[in-house]
């Protein structure tokens, strides 16, 4: 019998049969260059199949088959040996069954404890405490509110207007500004499951090291009653991961391109602490409806990278009217070596990007021009394959990640 026919008879692949021959589990005849499966192979394969169903490993199968070939289980001592092996395997399987049952019970408890108690749509809204901070980004005066719906000290619906003609809407508790991109510049957002699956593990690990750095630095700063702002959250967002470990008296603003991403962030934050004072703004140009000089801490979670990739401006240059003399920036910045081919790709794929984005000195030089100086920095590593969403990346180029703390230089 040829290998193909033999394999079909036992419902295995020809590769499996050849592997068993290589291990010596099957001993076929050989004519010229072809194996011929004999009756001995048929009997051995039937025995192997039975032992596999008993959950014996191939190594164990080999040992049992070797003993059978020598003794043929012809007397009581041989049969007892085989029976003892079966009894021991049964004990192992019972123990494994108990372990699996316990694991299933633990999984069921984990599923129950991780189920969200809040219902979809049970959102908070714009906290009333933010009303005095909502200013026109054009003429820098307090915005007027109209047709507002307030519930439990939160504005859930309404409009924001200015005498200059500026308008913004409040929908489902989120401020919707004007001049938005028709679609998000990102194919998906950071919390999207498929995005996470496709990202390279080494890149995720770098982001995690960055998160540790952000958390350590922010916990060392006095955040009492401070306003903390994080923008461009579609590409990467850091605060929700550890926001519940920071000062509970602080107020937070999250801004991004995608309404879906803002809702994801809100859901995660409210799951940690629904009483936190948080404002969500749908915005693409960083002209935020916030009071001038109101930002105490700006969390640059790679905002510089993402904004400067899509715009010819440095983001802090646009945001500088929101900073004051004691404002600080806690940031992360990715860059390539000056000779990297990826930098050439950026200029061709993103013709509207800043000409020096992702260059090593880009962050230092532009912070300095805008009145900030880096007081603390750390290069936390690099990877050579950040993943498919970094379409400008050239294989083997080093994608560095650096963390920094900056304050006004005055």
Q: What does this protein structure show overall?
A:
It is a single chain. It is built from 13 helices and 14 strands. Strands 3, 4, 5, 6, 7, 8, 9, 10, 11, 12, 13 and 14 form a twelve-stranded mixed sheet that branches. With 410 residues, the protein is α/β, with parallel strands linked by helices. It has two domains: 3-72, Multidrug-efflux Transporter Regulator, Chain: A, Domain 2, CATH 1.10.1660; 166-408, Vaccinia Virus protein VP39 (Rossmann fold). The longest helix has 39 residues, at 76-114.
Strand content: 15-25%
Q: Structural class, from helix and strand content?
A: alpha/beta
> What is the number of beta strands?
14
- Return the average pLDDT rounded to an integer: 90
Q: Return Rg in Å.
A: 32 Å
* Amino-to-carboxy terminus distance: 89 Å
Portion of residues within helices: 25-40%
Listing every helix as H and every strand as E from the N terminus to the C terminus, the arrangement reads HHEEHHHEEEEEHHEHEHEEHHEHHEE
Q: Please give the CATH class of the largest domain.
A: Alpha Beta
């Amino acid at each position: 019998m040829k290998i193909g026919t033999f394999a079909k008879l036992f419902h295995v692949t020809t590769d499996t049969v050849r592997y068993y021959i290589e291990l010596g589990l099957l001993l076929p005849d050989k004519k010229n260059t072809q194996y011929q499966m004999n009756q001995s192979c048929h009997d051995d394969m039937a025995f192997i199949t039975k032992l596999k169903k008993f959950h014996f490993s191939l190594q164990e199968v080999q040992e049992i088959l070797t003993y059978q070939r020598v003794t043929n289980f012809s007397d009581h001592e041989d049969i007892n040996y085989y029976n003892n092996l079966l009894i021991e395997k049964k004990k192992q399987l019972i123990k494994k069954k108990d372990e699996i049952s316990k694991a299933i019970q633990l999984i069921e408890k984990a599923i129950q404890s991780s189920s969200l108690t809040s219902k979809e749509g049970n959102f908070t809204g714009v906290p009333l405490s933010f009303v005095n901070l909502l200013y026109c980004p054009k003429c820098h005066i307090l915005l007027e509110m109209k047709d507002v719906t307030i519930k439990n000290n939160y504005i859930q619906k309404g409009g924001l207007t200015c005498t200059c003609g500026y308008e913004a809407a409040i929908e489902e508790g989120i401020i919707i500004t004007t001049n938005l991109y028709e679609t998000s510049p990102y194919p998906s957002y950071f919390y999207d499951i498929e995005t996470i699956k496709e990202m390279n593990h080494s890149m995720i690990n770098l982001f995690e090291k960055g998160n540790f750095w952000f958390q350590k630095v922010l916990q060392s700063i006095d955040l009492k009653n401070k306003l903390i702002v994080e923008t461009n959250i579609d590409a990467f967002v850091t605060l929700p991961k550890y926001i519940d470990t920071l000062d509970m008296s602080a107020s937070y603003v999250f801004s991004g391109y995608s309404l879906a991403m803002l809702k994801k962030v809100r859901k995660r934050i409210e799951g940690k602490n629904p009483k936190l004072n948080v404002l969500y703004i749908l915005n693409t140009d960083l002209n935020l409806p916030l009071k001038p000089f109101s930002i105490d801490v700006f969390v640059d979670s790679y905002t510089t990278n993402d904004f400067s990739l899509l715009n010819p401006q440095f983001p802090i240059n646009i945001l500088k009217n929101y900073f004051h003399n004691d404002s600080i920036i806690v940031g992360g910045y990715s860059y390539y070596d000056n000779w990297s081919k990826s930098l050439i790709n950026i200029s061709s794929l993103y013709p509207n990007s800043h000409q020096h984005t992702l260059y090593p000195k880009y962050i230092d030089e532009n912070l300095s021009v805008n009145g900030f100086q880096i007081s603390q920095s750390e290069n936390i590593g690099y990877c050579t394959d950040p993943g498919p969403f970094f379409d400008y990346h050239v294989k083997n180029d080093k994608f560095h990640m650096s963390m920094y703390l900056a304050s006004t230089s005055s």
